User: Fold this.
Amino acid sequence: MSSETHPGMSGREAAALDALLSARYSCRAYRPERVSRELVERALRMAQQTPSWCNTQPWRVHVASGASRDALIRRLHDTASAETPIRPDFPFPEAYEGVFRDRRKVCGVQLYQSLGIGREDRQRAREQSLENFRAFGAPHMAIVTTEGALGPYGLLDCGLYLMSVMLAFRALGVDCIAQAALASYPDLVRAHFGLPETRRVVCGLSFGYAEPEAAINGYRTERAGIDEVIEWSE
Ligand SMILES: Cc1cc2nc3c(=O)[nH]c(=O)nc-3n(C[C@H](O)[C@H](O)[C@H](O)COP(=O)(O)O)c2cc1C
Assistant:
């Protein structure tokens, strides 16, 4: 049975999801206007439909705006600027080899080229990298946490949740970026939001409305074809 004839699946829904997935991108320059709390709640209500292991729903999302956002940024930016060693709750990748190295490189080149940062300009590259800890100017910084005892599958559930939030935001005209960088100093994040040690920091998600003129928002990343993904076995 083709997807076009499957009951409950209309061509319109598939096209809408396809468009949504294609339209989402990581926004790295924002206008200062805040997103209304109603709109954020609407997106998060949609994202609550995310499935999870045994329906545990381990995610919590801690949203910093206004003075709270400014204070969090100050702490994170000061800490990162001082080259404090990172101590993420979930270890960052140890190495990027082969195709992963290639893709990571292209990703960096696109970003730096959009800003006219040359290969040798380590100082500007470093400054740009520190923009992570300013949430790229987004008026809101969200941190997604899981419960440590739920282990890697709690983390996986939170990854699914993160994507649901990103798509819901896109559908509502809100721009965002997932930021593992904001998970670099989890103790600082826990202290800021008053979280217990058991809450593990998964990822940041900065959001707001894109600055359309910004060159850094002007490029789009590529994806491998599905022939590089699927292995059929019959
Ligand atoms: C879990 C996760 C963590 C990420 N962390 C960062 C980050 O710390 N800083 C950053 O600039 N981009 C970060 N990104 C954005 C990726 O670089 C981006 O998703 C990828 O290059 C694909 O581009 P696109 O989102 O524009 O489609 C992250 C994305 C994901 C999914």
Remarks:
- The first helix runs from residue 11 to 23.
- The CA atoms of residues 27 and 217 lie 6 Å apart.
- The helical segments are 11-23, 37-47, 66-81, 98-114, 122-130, 151-171, 186-193.
- The chain has a mean pLDDT of 95.
